[in-house]
Predict the 3D structure of the following.
Amino acid sequence: MSINKAFSHDCIILDACCIINLYASQQMRAILGSIPKTISVATYVKDYEVLSIYSGPIENVQDEHELIDLQPFIEEKLLFLADIETDFEANTYINFAQKLDDGEAITGAIAINRNWAIATDDAKSIKMFQSNASQIAIVSTLDLVKYWADTEKPNNDIILNALLNIRVRGKYAPHRDHPLAKWWQKFM
């Protein structure tokens, strides 16, 4: 996964897991604002898959949920909506939907047919997209977060808090083989 390869594409489309993790970080605005490319999400993913994050107190975070509201990011033009528009995209979606959830299949169909990069943390999706479109860059939540940390240089406490929120509120931690696992562990 390389963020620089993703920047060779016109757009990066975020899968549900990345949206949830970025929203959970409580730094989504800053992270999206640091990326020098258009960032999109499939309307289906926005409407049906990224519904809430845990928001209770840190010691019992699952007690409460916060609804994910992407509208402010859309209004600020930090995030754009994308829909399947062509027969090619629809056919690709149908093929992917046989093995992936609808949101992942739609995201992949849009990205592959428009030559956009994909941001996802889902191993099954990554494997499928790599085998069907090796020219498409695939990045993870951590690629986006690390890019923000490297370019905007927030203090380490802000980075730690963002990563802790991703782990606790988004319920995500990278696999030990993830290229940025050591960077994650440095903060945890």
Summary: The chain has one domain: 3-187. Residues 38 and 77 are 9 Å apart (CA to CA). The radius of gyration is 16 Å.
